[in-house]
Structure formats: structure tokens, C-alpha cells
Design a protein that fits this description.
This protein is rod-shaped. It contains 7 helices and 5 strands. The protein has a 5-stranded parallel sheet with strand order 2-1-3-4-5, sandwiched between helices. The protein is of the alpha/beta class. α2 runs parallel beside α3, α5 packs across α7 and α6 packs across α7. It folds into 2 domains: 120 residues, 3-Layer(aba) Sandwich (Rossmann fold), CATH 3.40.50.2300; 49 residues, Arc Repressor Mutant, subunit A. β3, α3 and β4 form a beta-alpha-beta unit.
Length: 180
């Protein structure tokens, strides 16, 4: 689960931002006032967003961003005239003063990227094993010999039948082979 690390230079601001996030429905919110602490926490937590100010107690925001794992993004809270000084890929910014819903929406957007990536990786097509490939070739050969189909016609037949019956391509090939 993605988390949020609040790394602002003032303790009062850290607590205020954490309270806003918790009230907004985020349960995984951690306060680490220095850049070094935020980096150490990020290494342990996995993925998420670090909310920081322009200058932390021990480093600048861009040094923090460069030191974080790739699975973390930075949300920079700074006055409007300080935004956009350095364009980095994993940094979004929010001008201060900001509306609470702007903060919550920005964090949700940033965390949504992680959820999207996880889903995309999970839904990536799985590679077939050599045994499954052999099974498919055998089913195609059977269709080609028995029904005088070309290889592409046999492939399309298996594909259409698997879609019509809501089965995987391999399952449909197995069914064809059992109906010899």
C-alpha cells in the first residue's frame, strides 16, 4: 500500500498536514522532519508520496527527490514564486497557501499512479510455457489436417472459440484435442 511521508521543516506544519490527510481518509501518513529521515523511511516503506517544503532542515527539495527510491514521488509545497524553478519528472508542486481539497486531490492523483501501475503489471499478458505452445501447435495442426484450414485460419478459429466460450486460448486448444 502506498503511503505519505510529510517532511516539512516546521513541526507545527507537519502535524497540520498529517491531520488534514488523516481527516481526508489517508491512514498511512508518517512525519519525518528531515530529508535524511524521510529517505530512510521511504527505503523501508516501499512506495508513496513525500510532501516537503522548498527547504528541509538538512537539504533542499531537489536533493531529497534525487535521493528517494524510484517508487516515491515528491509533492513540493512552496510559495507560488518558488515553484517551477527546477523541472524534475517525479516532482509535483502545490502553491501555498492552498485549499485543503487541492492538497487531497493532488495526493490522490499521485497515489493513483501507483495503483494504475500495479494493475497494469498485474494484467500484463502471461508468457506461455513451452508445453502450452506445443499444445496450441498440435491443436492447430489437427484443425489444419481435419478441416483443410491454413495455419492462420486455425489460429483464428481457436481464438474466436475461446472468446465465445470465455476460455483461455490454451483451454480451447485442449478441448479441440480431446474431441479428436
Amino acid at each position: 500500500m502506498a503511503c505519505v511521508i510529510v517532511a516539512l521543516s516546521k513541526e507545527k506544519e507537519n502535524k497540520m498536514i498529517k491531520n488534514l490527510l488523516v481527516q481526508g481518509g489517508y491512514s498511512e501518513v508518517f512525519i519525518h522532519p528531515s530529508g535524511a529521515q524521510a529517505i530512510a523511511a521511504a527505503d523501508q516503506l516501499g512506495e508513496g508520496v513525500v510532501i516537503c517544503s522548498f527547504r528541509l532542515t538538512d537539504m533542499m527539495y531537489f536533493e531529497l527527490a534525487e535521493s528517494l527510491p524510484n517508487s516515491f514521488k515528491v509533492l513540493l509545497l512552496a510559495p507560488g514564486n518558488r515553484l517551477g524553478e527546477r523541472g524534475m519528472e517525479n516532482i509535483m508542486s502545490l502553491a501555498m497557501p492552498f485549499q485543503v481539497h487541492d492538497l487531497l486531490n493532488t495526493v490522490e492523483l499521485m497515489l493513483g499512479d501507483f495503483i494504475y501501475e500495479r494493475r497494469r503489471k498485474k494484467q500484463a499478458p502471461k508468457k506461455r510455457t513451452p508445453e502450452q505452445e506445443a499444445l496450441i501447435r498440435e491443436a492447430k495442426a489437427l484443425l489444419m489436417n481435419r478441416n483443410n484450414m491454413s495455419e492462420s485460419e486455425a489460429h483464428r478459429y481457436i481464438q474466436k472459440r475461446s472468446m465465445d466460450e470465455s476460455r483461455s486460448f490454451v483451454e480451447t486448444a485442449q478441448i479441440i484435442l480431446t474431441m479428436r
